[in-house]
Structures are given as C-alpha cells and as structure tokens.
Write a sequence for this structure.
C-alpha cells in the first residue's frame, strides 16, 4: 500500500495510512496530502460572493443607465418643444385684459409669457405645476430644486393628458371637455420627469402701457370712428375712441378735453363730417348711405375744410384740394431730432394732420363707390370723372406716405392711429416699469398688513416720454366691452419723473448693451417618483399670483375664463370629496339638431359668460379654481394615494440642463 | 485499514448547502439574465427612439419625405397647387420683401418698391360687398393686372396682389401662410368674369371646411384680415394626395383646403365642420411617414415616425411623432415634439425652386 500523506498547512503532517502506524519506508517529500482550511474556504467563498454581488449590482446600474437615457430622451424632446413654442410665440393670448383705468389695475404685464417659466404656467406647453409642499420634500444635487422653490420659482411635471400642441383648442388654452382623438396618455415613466428654470429672469418690457394699449390702429384711408349710433364697427374693438378725441363731447363719458388742441372751428367741421358720413359701417346692408350723394358731398366738403383749418400744407383748391407729399428724406439735412428743425413738419408730422388727410382720402375714394358710381348697373348717382379718379388715387398715395412717415419716425407720438394696413413690429413703443419709483394705485385696495397698506405699483419709463396721448379707449376686460372711464390723468402721472418734475429715463435699459451671461438661463430636468407620496393628488397646487386668474382683486372679470386660468384647472378636484374634477362650463357650446326648436337646432352647453357668471363669485368655485383640493395628477379620474408618508424625503436624479436666451420683449421668430 | 467517510448528516448538510447554492446561483443567473435582456431591450428601444428622433429632426430640416431632391427621388408635390411646384418670379411677383435702397437709384424708385407690401384695399374684406368696392373702388390703388404711368409702371401695385394670388393658387394655402410676410392681409383683387375688378374670395365659411375654402368664421368678425384672424379656428397643412388611402384627401386640390377646428352656428348656419374637414381630420391626414427599419429582427420593437407641417392657433408648427411598440409586451411609447425646423420657403430654396441656393 502506498502510504498517503496529506499536507494540512503549516501545522504539520498527519499520517492517515496504516492507522498511524510507523512505516519502514521513508516518506517522500512533496507527496503530502493537503486541503483548504475552513477559513480559506470561507475567504474564497466570500470573494466569490462579493464578485457575484458586484456583477449583480452592475446589472441594475446598467438598467438605470438605460432608464436615465430614456428620461433624457423624454426630457430632450420636451425641451425641444418648449424652445420651439418659446421662440415661435403664438398669438393665442387673446381674451386677456389690455387696459386698466389706473396704473396697477392691470395684471397684463405679468400674464404675457415673455419669460419661459411664465409660459410654463400656461396651457401651451403641456406642463403642470408641481405642488409646492411636494417640491419641498425632494432632495437634489446642490439643493437646486429647493433653491428654485425658495426663490419663488415653480417646478413642473408633464401633464398626464398630454396633447399634441397646436391643432386643437387645448393648446390654445381652452378648457374643452374630453380627450381629442389624437391625444394619447404619456408614458407613465415620463410623469416622473420634473422641469425647472435656473437663473434669474431679466426685467421685461411691457407689452403695452397698462392704461392704454398703444399702438391703436386704423386703415389708411378710412373714415373716423364715430360716436354712438352703432357706427363703431371696425376701429379698435368696438370703441369709437377717435370720435371722443376730436368731437365736442363734454357731456360724454369720457369727456373730450381736447388734448390735441384742436381749434373749435375744426372740431365743428369734424362733427359735420361725421354726421354726413355715408359709410360708417363698411357693410353691404348700408345701401341707403352708400347711395346718398348729399351725404357724400357734405362729408367731402367738411373734410376739406378740416384740412384747411388745421393748416395742412396743400396745393389746388376744393373740390380737389391736395395736401403736399412728405419730403424725400434723403434731401433733409441731419441731424433730424432737435427742436426747431426747419423740416420738422416733414420729419415728425402733426398727428392731427395725419388723421385729417386720412379722412379726406376716404372721402375722395367714396366718389368711386360701387353703388353711387353706378358700377352695379344702376344709373350713376355720382358719375365718376377722370379727375375724380386721379384725385382719389393721388390722395391715397399722399395719405399712405404721410401715414408711413408719421408711424416710422416716432413711435412715441400717440396722437393718430397707426396704419393697420402697414403693420410693423418696429412701430412699438418700448416701455418698462421703473422698479425704483413706487406709485400708489389709489383705488382704495389694501393688503393684509397691519395697519393695512394701499396697493402700490411702479411708474413707467421709456427712452423718451410719449406725447399727444389721450385716455385709453380699449376694452378693460374680456367680459366688458365698452369705453372705460377717462384715465388720461392716470396715464399722465404714470411716467417716472425726476425731482424737478421732468421725465426720468435714467433707468430705461431695454436697449442697453448686455453681456451674454446676463441673459442666459437654464432648463433643468430631474427624474423623481413624486407620485409615490400619499398626498400627491390631495396637495394644493398653489400658490398662485394674480396673473393666474381671469378676475382681478376687485372682483371684475378682466379676462375670459376660457383663456386665463391655472394650467391644471381641468384636473383640479371640485370639492373636498375629491370625487369629481372641476366642471367645464366654458366653451362647450354647440348646436345639435332639434325638431322642436323653431331654428331646427338646440344649444348644448353653457355660455362662458352670462348665466355662468353667478357661480364664479362663490368661495367654493374659487377654492377649486386655485386647486385647493388638489388635482387628479395622474389623470385616471379617481383619487389615488401613494405609499410614502408626507414626512419622507426622496431624491431626484439629474437628467440634463439646457441653456436658453432670456428675452425681455414679446417676440416671435416667425409669424 | 479503516476507511472513514462522511456521515449521513454531513452528506445531508453538504447536499443542502450545495443545493441552496445551486438554487441561489440559478436564481441569480436567471435574474441576471432577465436583467441583461431587459437592459438590452431598453438599450435597443432607446437606440430606436433616438434613431427615430434623429430621422425626424433630419426630415424637419430637409423635408426629404415630402420632396426628395436626390436623383430619382420621390417628389409627389411638384405639381400645380402643391407646395413644391416651381414658380417663375418676375419684377411684380417675387419674394424680395425688403428691398435694400440702392444709393445710386432715386428715392422714389426705392419708395415704391418698399411700399409694395401695403394693403391698398377695403379693410373689411368679407363684410363689404361687392368685394372691396362698396365704399369706393379700391382697385384704383392696385390689383393683379394694375398698370399706370408711374416710375415702375404699376408693378409695385401688382406685387402684393400677385403674391397672394400666385402662391395661393399654385402652391396652396399652407404655402401662402408660410411665404406671406408677418403683416400680410390675406386678400387680393382680380378681374371677375364680367370684367369688374373685385376682391377674390377663396370660398366662404358656409362650406365649413373643405376644398377651395380659406376664409373662416373669424373673417366675418371685424378684425384686420391678418395671420391671426386667418388662423382662428382653422387648420392648414400639407397633404400628399398620392399617399392617401382616404379618397377624400387624394384630390389634387387637397393643399387648397381648410380644416376647421371650431365654428359659430349663427355665422355659418351649420352644425360643425363638414365631414372629414375638422382639425382632427386634417391632423390625421397630414404629414409623411418615414421608413424606419424595413428589415429588422422579429423581436425588435417597431418604430414609426410621422412628420407634419401645419398652421393653427395663429402659429406654424413643424412636429414629429415617434412611436415604438414592443412586439413582446405590446407597450407603446410615443414621443411628440415640435421643432423650429426649416420653413417651406427654406426647403424650396434648398432645392433651387425659388431661383437661389442649389441648382435643382
């Protein structure tokens, strides 16, 4: 038998052959039998287990990397869309307040989405605000999310009812019922992507003066808008502001205080012209007016006298009185802008002259009308001569040239309307709040301080002080179309002034040079399962500022409800029971065939205005409007709760960041 | 000799431990395998989605799926009334919106060219009757055949009318919106059958959407007939008729059609848009589908990409919809985004259709 030895480490040998008996044959060195000790086995097993664990841990890391990549795809696409919408700002911000009577009574400067984070608070981007209480429970690298929230910003998540922007009314901000056929629920994991804006916004320019939405417009040539009698069709939102500026209307509201300094005789001719105008309404139904030669003649006579009384430089004589054309700019010596320039009348025309020439040109055109000239086949009431035609054509040319000169040379002269048929983005006065010039609103509204403080706003600065302005005459709110009270004094006291009472433009900086870093902000994206919280659908959405509401602090409905509301209104719970969403009373107005109705149709749905107004005054309505009861944030129609208690904290994973330019004005890359 | 082996207990214990280790290893390997599979699937999906997004961005920039400029490429929209129809420009019809003043030329010549974009027509086209002459004969100030004895012979007073007419009728409604300057008022004057020069209407709203209709209900309000007014409650897009399965959109006139998002009963006297001409219908019919992965492993997800160009809600959109469906789970992923891509005008210039950039 061959003896077998086993090496057992360094502790020695143990003879396992022959029962431990001694052998006569010497043991061969190196043939000892050995084995791992238990300790060695344990170590090796631990190593293998660690390696296996590491391998197993790497797999989820790979999975997380792929999930991260997926989140980056979602976020990247959303950011592309955000930037596209931001750069190609649409025009669906109608039905918002344009003017307030007093400075500080118009939240419009805050409603226009000049800043991207303000646009995120609209319906256009399909983003909804994350409840603030939940946002404060989320940790992130460098506490960036907390910093945004602490500084007054909001975080946003993708709407569970994401829609494809642009072609239906959801994206126009309209609160329509039900999903659209092409609407699809976003991937559930996309709901975990959170968006925020890092960096500070620059102070924005104003979309218009809060008390007067200049520039007002008119077509060149055209008649003046008249006072009353329904002759108010075309110029500026159903208001006859031009009549109020020119006519003697001391008893009207607002009274005309003749701020343009129009001679009394000229005012008389203006009123004769208005009384005779055969075509106040540009409508085919007004045939009696359009065939009335006497009225037409009276209009032309009055408009020519008006031109003469105002001192417009003319050639010829009535009935073919012709204003001279503006001088060729290339022949006028520079510099142009100084008082007493010999050609100042051609550089910076008198707004009264511009309006008068426009009205005169309309009169010359009327002679060629379809009906009065017999072009409809009837006997001509006013046979058109070659001289009439030449006069109309020449006057139109002169009228257009003066209108263009006036609008081009000084966007800060607000005495005559701009040509609607020659709209230009450059005919836009640059205005901004002077943030260092507080101004009492003076309407009696107070805050909740003790003692209460009156509302305060800012005064307005510009590169130069506007001139020749009147009262504002536009709509004050979407539900109240009408001329508001005279607010000339509110406009006149709205300008920032120096100690000596002169206009202060020292803090106007919209046109100042700037460093790129000053206008660089970042979209930041994270991923976090915030819907794991128990209260993710019961947490209040707010807070909101006044720009979210269609009503102002005085209770007036200054915007359309269908247009201006919190972005998650359609998901908000209607009451404390949280069983139904906020009702959609707004625009689901359509007609269905109904044989019992004399018209054959029956209206379905409630009007956005009218009878639906009463409910808006209730506390219950306003609580639901501002998301006090939370919202159906996963879009499934029922109240849900997550497993995490509100006291728990979660950590967000950074997904990406994108730089963008922080504009300061309302603008669009394309139409 | 005494042989010593493991005891039964030792064997049982060791077998139990071994079994547990094997089971654990099996589970671990299985989980790892599933994780690897899931990771690979996610990776493939991500790659496909990324590829889809890349293809969409490329097409939104180059418009290749609408008009492939490569030799032998598919160009289904080169015919008349489609947006890639070649146009011949002239002095009184071109896309030079902002003429630079030639210091050697007269101020008058520059002024007239500069003023050609002025709208010299009845401000309320749509309510005045008959088109543009009720209050006065606006055709005295310009129409598509206007001539006079001025320095440019009247071309500056034909230019705007010809632009609206030629682009509208030769390239379609979307093209007109794309080409028109931001302050365009959408109307022009031309001779009627009886020789009277009147404003030409592109249909009226009574049709509630459909062929030849460009005006909407909003035009009947007293608003300037501009871009915003034109796109209130309407949807204009580009449709490739030869690729349509619905015969309604296979007509050669389909790019001169209006889809309607909403309507006003009292204005139109009709309940809703015509069948097939709602905004949703237009959205469904519009766009082109990009060919992605025609040959792929059967276990791979499918990816579809649809690119659309349309105008609605007072702005233009260039959008892409990337969808991926897992053949295993059936789960659908959808990515939709809009993008500031190339305009139609830019795409035509890329192809030299407007006389510049590259040769066709």
């Amino acid at each position: 038998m061959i003896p077998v030895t086993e090496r057992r480490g360094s502790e020695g040998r143990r003879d396992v052959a022959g029962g431990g008996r001694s052998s006569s044959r010497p043991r061969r060195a190196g043939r000892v039998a050995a084995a791992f000790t238990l300790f060695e086995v344990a170590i090796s097993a631990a190593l293998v287990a660690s390696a296996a664990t590491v391998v197993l841990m790497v797999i989820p890391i790979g999975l997380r990397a792929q999930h991260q990549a997926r989140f980056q795809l979602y976020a990247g696409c959303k950011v592309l869309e955000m930037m596209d919408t931001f750069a190609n700002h649409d025009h669906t911000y109608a039905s918002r307040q344009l003017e307030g009577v007093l400075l500080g009574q118009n939240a419009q400067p805050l409603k226009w989405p000049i800043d991207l984070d303000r646009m995120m608070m609209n319906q256009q981007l399909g983003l909804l605000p994350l409840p603030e209480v939940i946002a404060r429970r989320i940790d992130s690298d460098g506490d960036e999310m907390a910093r945004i929230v602490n500084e007054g910003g909001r975080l946003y998540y993708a709407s569970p009812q994401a829609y494809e922007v642009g072609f239906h009314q959801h994206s126009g901000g309209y609160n329509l019922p039900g999903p659209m056929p092409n609407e699809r629920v976003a991937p559930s994991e996309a709901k975990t992507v959170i968006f925020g804006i890092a960096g500070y916004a620059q102070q924005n320019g104003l979309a218009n003066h809060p008390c007067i939405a200049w520039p007002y417009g008119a077509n060149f040539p055209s008649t003046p808008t008249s006072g009353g009698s329904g002759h108010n069709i075309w110029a500026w939102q159903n208001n006859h502001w031009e009549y109020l500026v020119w006519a003697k209307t001391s008893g009207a509201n607002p009274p005309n205080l003749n701020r343009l300094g129009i001679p009394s005789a000229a005012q008389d001719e203006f009123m004769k012209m208005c009384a005779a105008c055969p075509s106040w309404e540009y409508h085919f139904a007004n045939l009696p007016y359009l065939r009335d030669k006497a009225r037409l003649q009276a209009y032309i006579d009055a408009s020519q006298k008006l031109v003469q009384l105002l001192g417009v430089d003319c050639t010829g004589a009535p009935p073919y009185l012709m204003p001279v054309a503006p001088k060729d700019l290339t022949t006028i010596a520079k510099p142009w802008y100084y008082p007493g320039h010999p050609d100042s009348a051609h550089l910076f025309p008198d707004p009264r002259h511009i309006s008068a020439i426009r009205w005169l040109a309309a009169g010359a055109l009327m002679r060629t009308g379809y009906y009065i000239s017999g072009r409809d086949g009837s006997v001509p009431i006013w046979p058109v001569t070659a001289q009439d035609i030449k006069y109309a054509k020449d006057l139109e040319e002169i009228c257009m040239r003066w209108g263009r000169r006036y609008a081009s040379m000084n966007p800060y002269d607000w005495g005559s309307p701009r040509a609607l048929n020659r709209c230009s983005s450059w005919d836009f006065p640059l205005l901004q709040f002077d943030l260092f010039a507080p101004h009492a609103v003076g309407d009696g509204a107070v805050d909740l301080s003790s003692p209460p403080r009156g509302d305060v706003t800012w005064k307005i600065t510009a590169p130069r002080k506007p001139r020749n302005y009147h009262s504002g005459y536009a709509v004050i709110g979407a539900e109240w179309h009408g001329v508001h009270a005279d607010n000339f004094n509110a406009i006149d006291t709205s300008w920032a002034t120096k100690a000596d009472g002169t206009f202060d433009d020292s803090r106007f900086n919209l046109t100042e040079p700037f460093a790129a870093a000053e206008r660089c902000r970042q979209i930041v994206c994270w991923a976090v399962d915030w819907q794991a919280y128990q209260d993710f659908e019961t947490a209040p959405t707010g807070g909101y500022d006044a720009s979210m509401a269609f009503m102002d602090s005085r209770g007036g409905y200054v915007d359309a409800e269908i247009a201006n509301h919190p972005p998650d209104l359609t998901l908000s719970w209607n009451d404390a029971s949280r069983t139904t969403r906020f009702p959609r009373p707004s625009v689901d107005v359509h007609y269905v065939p109904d044989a019992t109705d004399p018209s054959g149709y029956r209206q379905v749905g409630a009007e956005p205005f009218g009878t639906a107004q009463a409910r808006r005054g209730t506390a219950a309505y306003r609580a639901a409007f501002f998301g006090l009861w939370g919202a159906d944030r996963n879009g499934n129609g029922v109240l849900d709760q997550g497993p995490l208690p509100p006291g728990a904290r979660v950590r967000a994973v950074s997904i990406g960041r994108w730089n963008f330019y922080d504009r300061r004005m309302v603008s669009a890359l394309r139409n | 000799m005494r042989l010593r082996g493991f005891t039964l207990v030792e064997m049982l214990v060791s077998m139990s431990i071994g079994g547990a280790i094997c089971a654990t290893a099996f589970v671990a390997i299985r989980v790892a395998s599933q994780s690897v599979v899931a990771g690979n699937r996610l990776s493939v999906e991500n790659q496909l989605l990324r590829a889809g997004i890349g293809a969409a961005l490329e097409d939104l920039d180059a418009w290749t799926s609408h008009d492939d400029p490569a030799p032998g490429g598919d160009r289904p929209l080169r015919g008349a009334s489609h947006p890639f129809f070649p146009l011949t420009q002239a002095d009184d019809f071109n896309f030079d919106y902002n003429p630079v003043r030639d210091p050697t030329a007269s101020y008058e010549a520059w002024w007239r060219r500069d003023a050609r974009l002025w709208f010299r027509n009845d401000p309320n086209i749509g309510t005045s009757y008959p088109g543009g002459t009720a209050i006065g004969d606006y055709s005295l100030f310009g129409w598509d055949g206007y001539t006079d004895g001025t320095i440019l012979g009247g071309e500056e007073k034909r230019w705007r009318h010809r632009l609206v007419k030629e682009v509208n009728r030769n390239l379609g409604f979307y093209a007109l919106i794309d080409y028109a300057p931001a302050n365009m008022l959408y109307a022009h004057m031309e001779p009627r059958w009886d020789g009277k020069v009147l404003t030409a209407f592109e249909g009226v709203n009574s049709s509630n959407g459909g062929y030849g209709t460009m005006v909407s209900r909003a035009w009947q309000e007293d608003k300037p007939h501009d871009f915003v007014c034109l796109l209130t409650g309407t949807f204009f897009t580009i449709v490739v008729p030869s690729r349509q399965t619905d015969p309604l959109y296979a007509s050669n006139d389909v790019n001169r059609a209006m889809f309607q998002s909403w309507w006003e009963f009292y204005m139109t006297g009709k309940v809703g848009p015509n069948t097939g001409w709602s905004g949703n219908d237009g959205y469904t019919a519009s766009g082109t589908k990009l060919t992605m992965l025609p040959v792929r492993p059967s276990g791979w997800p499918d990816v579809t990409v649809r690119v659309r160009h349309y105008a609605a809600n007072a702005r233009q959109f260039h959008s892409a919809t990337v969808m991926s469906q897992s053949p295993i789970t059936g789960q659908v992923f959808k990515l939709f985004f809009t993008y500031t891509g190339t305009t139609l005008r830019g795409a035509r210039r890329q192809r030299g259709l407007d006389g510049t950039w590259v040769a066709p």
Summary: The mean pLDDT of chain A is 81. Chain A is about 25% helix and 10% strand.
